[in-house]
Specification:
The structure is a single chain. The chain has 16 helices and 23 strands. By secondary structure, it is of the alpha+beta class. Strands 17-18-16-15-21-22-23 form a seven-stranded mixed sheet, with helices on both faces. Strands 3-2-1-5-14-13 form a six-stranded mixed sheet, with helices on both faces. β2 and β3 form a beta hairpin. The radius of gyration is 22 Å and the shape is globular. The protein starts with a strand and ends in a 7-residue tail after the last helix. The protein binds adenosine-5'-diphosphate. The site of adenosine-5'-diphosphate has 20 residues, from α10 and α11.
């Protein structure tokens, strides 16, 4: 790569599609973003229109590439990172999706998963995949499409359809239908991939009744995936990385050594701890998953997933209309000297790690006539910190040692009040990096590794720079009181099952 060339990362997230150009020092040069419409056909269902995702992808890529031309720079390579688990099936001949993308948050298969979830099945699934039987992962979403969309199962069995997470679908389109591939991190989120032998697993496929012929080939996260089709952009560009968004963020946060840990606070929150070349199977409800696979060598991580983080703030804005922008929550929370005993449990789509309860729903405890937007905003921000605490405790228990610090990123970490409270509740140092777009940075870095700009994974450590650290500054008794209040709230919530479940 010459000094004049750049790396382009495509970050296809849950709420937006972004293209970000980085130079070889990891500095962000150009960004374009398009919001993505959330489709809620009925309660608990969440879909995206794959055509909208494709059109937004082409638009943000064209705009960034055109700006690069204006700057006299050349994009050498593209890296793709994506919302994970979200499932698309499309026709191999026409490239047309047979149904909308079913989003990771979608809970339509929760009853089907509950019915499958006995201890023998859980053991079988966890041993091979490191995951748990949950609607969150792709397998039950694929089965739902095969069973509920007319003619799809037959066409799938006849080899006319392709399945992919969003990375695969976009690669297929970008290469004009030449490449049907995914990477090991995305594969590891499907419930169909054996994380030990790195292969699609026949037993898992028959458990979920999914024909193997629809699956993409699995490659290393940093490798040659294809080249953009002629005529799509001014020049054809190589695609040298594909990686799930949380794994990309961990790389962008330079979590490339055993024991390093990051948390990304976007729509949901995902904490990943690098565990090196050995998969650690959690006793505390955490997932075992691929951190990345490079040169055929898998590196593993332990993951804790919180389903509702920034989406709770989005709900305050768009659902309740309590605020007009997410950043208002900072001033509102700051205006209170305590939480006044109010606890919001944001189980809008059930509870993720370490509870794994897909049938509970959210609630607010402690309301009084005095409760207003400030109290609700603060309770929403606090809830994300308590859920992080639950996961950190589970990680410490699995690791057998205390965690000393946490690297954070994602939209919510723009909120200083939130980050300080997080440090207070976790009682550890929390570090926010200068480049908050760690997801895109991770994908760009892997693409640079694939194209030869960087020589080894550890080079990313020189690109990571801290913005500021946050250290705990809360009274110990107060902290314990807040944590006890949260524990009580979760316990009470799990005793309640809504009638319509
Ligand atoms: P994703 O990649 O999942 O689309 P982002 O990392 O872009 O998410 O973060 C967006 C989320 O962060 C939104 O859900 C939004 O409500 C939340 N958010 C953004 N700014 C703030 C803020 N200042 N305070 C609290 N939450 C915020």
């Amino acid at each position: 790569m010459t000094k004049k060339s750049y790396i382009l990362a495509l970050d296809q997230g849950t709420t937006s599609t972004r293209a970000i150009v980085f130079d070889d020092t990891g500095s962000q040069i150009i960004t374009y973003q398009k919001e993505l419409k959330q489709i809620f056909p009925q309660s608990d269902w969440v879909e995206h229109d794959p055509e909208e995702i494709w059109e937004a992808t082409v638009e943000v890529l064209r705009r960034t590439l055109s700006d690069c031309v204006d700057l006299g720079k050349k994009v050498d390579t593209i890296g793709i990172t994506n919302q994970r688990e979200t499932t698309v099936l499309w026709d191999k001949k026409t490239g047309e999706p047979v149904y909308n993308a079913i989003v990771w948050q979608d809970q339509r298969t929760s009853i089907a998963c509950e019915n499958l979830s006995n201890s023998d099945n859980e053991k079988f699934i966890s041993k091979k995949t490191g995951l748990t039987i949950s609607p969150y992962f792709s397998a039950s979403k694929i089965s739902w499409i095969l069973d509920n969309v007319d003619g799809v199962r037959k066409n799938a069995e006849d080899g006319r359809l392709a399945f992919g997470t969003i990375d695969s679908f976009l690669l297929w389109r970008l290469t004009g239908g030449k490449a049907h591939l995914t990477d090991a991190t995305n594969a590891s989120r499907t419930l169909l991939f054996n994380i030990h032998n790195q292969k699609w697993d026949e037993d898992l496929l028959s458990f979920w009744r999914i024909p193997k012929v629809i699956l993409p080939e699995v490659r290393d996260s940093s490798s040659f995936f294809g080249i953009t089709k002629s005529g799509l952009f001014d020049s054809q560009i190589k695609i040298n990385s594909m990686v799930g968004d949380q794994q990309a963020a961990a790389i962008g946060q330079a979590c490339v050594r055993n024991g390093t840990i990051k948390a990304t606070y976007g729509t949901g929150c995902f904490l990943l701890m690098n565990t090196g070349d050995k998969p650690i199977i959690s006793n505390k409800g955490l997932l075992t998953t691929l951190a990345y696979r490079i040169n055929g060598k898998p590196t593993y991580s332990v993951e804790g997933s919180i389903f509702s983080a920034g989406s709770t703030i989005q709900w305050l804005r768009d659902g309740l209309k309590l605020i007009s922008s997410a950043s208002e929550t900072e001033e509102l929370a700051k205006s209170l000297s305590s939480n006044k005993g109010i606890y919001l449990v944001p189980a809008f789509t059930g509870l993720g790690a370490p509870y794994w309860n897909s049938t509970v729903r959210g609630t607010i405890f402690g309301l009084t006539l005095e409760t207003g937007p400030a109290e609700i905003a603060r309770a929403s921000l606090e809830a994300v910190t308590y859920q992080s605490y639950d996961i950190i405790k589970a990680m410490e228990s699995d690791l057998g040692q205390p965690i000393q610090s946490l690297q954070i990123d994602g939209g919510m970490t723009d909120n200083d009040w939130f980050v300080q409270y997080l440090s207070n509740i976790l009682n550890i140092k929390v570090a926010r990096p200068r480049v908050l777009e760690t997801t895109a940075l991770g994908a760009a870095f892997l693409a640079g590794l694939g194209s030869g700009l960087y020589s080894k994974l550890e080079d990313i450590e020189n690109l990571w720079k801290i913005d500021r650290p946050f250290c705990p500054n809360i009274d110990h008794t107060k902290r314990l009181k807040y944590l006890a209040g949260w524990k009580q709230a979760v316990q009470k919530l799990t005793m309640y099952k809504p009638d319509n479940m």
